[in-house]
Amino acid sequence: MTQSPVRPRIMLADSLRGFALMGLYIVHMVEYFELYWYKPEPGWVHNLIFFLFGGKAYGLFALLFGLSFFIILDNYQRRGQDFRLRFCWRLSLLLAFGYLHSLLYAGDILQLLALCGFLLVMSHQLSTRWLIGFAAFFLVQVPQILLIIVYSLVPDWSYPGPIFPSLMTANFEAFAHADLPGLLHHNLFDGQLGKWAFFIETGRLWNIIGLMFVGAVLGRTGFFERADVSITRLMKYLFAALIAYLAVFFLKDSLINAVPAGMPRWSTGQVFTYYENLALIAAGVVIFMLLFNAEFSRKVLLCFAPAGRLTLTFYIAQSLVFVPVFYGFGLAAYSFIGQVPSLLLGIVCWIIQMALAWFWLRHFRYGPLEWVWRKLTFVGFTHTR
Questions:
Q1: How many alpha carbons fall within 13 Å on the CB side of residue 191?
Q2: What's the confidence (pLDDT) of residue 295?
Q3: pLDDT score of 1
Q4: Taking a C-beta distance cutoff of 8 angstroms, is the pair 99, 35 a contact?
């Protein structure tokens, strides 16, 4: 049987992944790896960074996770090998990495990506139409809308407001004041509860699942590999995304206020926030692609590509370095650093990370944790390299 050629690396996707990692990292820096919320400091830095990256960088990360998922499975399928069970093992390893990481930084997203990834494996053989349907189901926030309906029709099943803030308050106390053994002990179980309550109550869980399915669809259709995506078509996509954002922005208040107070209204507000973020994520991806089509800006954006190939290493290393900087068991910088210095520190350290990624990949094919993940993935597996 003639095997199809394995696709080369998609430099656009690597660059976009590196950019998403930067956005996630900068958000973590200005929120002091979550301790900003212990003693909030509203101001222009917080407003600007959260408008640019808050609720968007992680979404782009999820989309690109779905894209990578499809590419890996498809590459092995082209070699005549069914990689789905092995990919489940790969996801299990990521889940373990994420849990270990969450013992230090409870806000870890790797666990969520790993668990949601199993849905992609189960649906891999379905048609593209089915994948688009799943993406739409979760991005429209159908599970959240059903909850809102239940809350509205059966008030006894509702409650005044979300429970995750009280759980997160207990986390913040541990982050700010516990010693390292105390923090690790807290995060074994109690520290996880606030994060998962947040994912479920706000609807972020459904948003991430939907974006992962979008990434799988984009991979299957070769969207980031196609040379026929013209500037004109990209401009149409951008215009549509901006119109969608403006429509949600101007309609949301009247629609939210039409819902009964309490959890129904609060949850409806979250739904419209995700709609806004989806439109901005789409617009951001299109703008990135437009810039990637221009020679000068492509050279700048390609600087993100090495970091985009070391996302697991950098994502965990950022916590290993900066959690001790901000948390109480270390320097407790959350209590004195301020938003502007934290942002500047984040920018400088991101530039250092890009330089380190470039240097590393000149000598090695994979990042340190990427190499470990790959080696453990292929234990006992015969594959064509």
A1: 25
A2: 87
A3: 43
A4: no
pLDDT in tens, 42-54: 899 999 999 999 9
Q: In this structure, what are the phi and psi dihedrals at residue 203, rounded to the nearest 5 degrees?
A: 90, 5
3-state per-residue secondary structure call for 71-116: HHHHHHHHCCCCCHHHHHHHHHHHHHHHHHHHCCCCCCCHHHHHHH
Non-local CB neighbours of 228 within 8 Å, separated by 6+ positions = none
Burial string for 20-32 (b: 16+ CB within 10 Å, else e) reads bbbbbbbbbbbbb
Using a CB cutoff of 8 Å and minimum separation of 24, what contacts does 289-298 make?
289/12, 289/229, 289/234, 290/231, 290/234, 290/235, 290/238, 292/12, 292/15, 293/231, 293/234
Q: Please tell me the distance from the alpha carbon of residue 174 to that of residue 194, in angstroms, as a whole number.
A: 13
pLDDT tens-digit series, residues 237-254:
999 999 999 999 999 999
| Per-residue pLDDT at 148 | 93
Segment 126-146 mean pLDDT: 96
Please indicate, yes or no, whether the overall pTM of this predicted structure exceeds 0.90.
Answer: yes
Q: Which DSSP string corresponds to 130-172?
A: HHHHHHHHHHTTHHHHHHHHHHHH-GGG--SS-SHHHHHHHHH
Backbone torsion region of residue 203, taken as left when φ is above 0, otherwise alpha when ψ lies between -120 and 50, otherwise beta: left
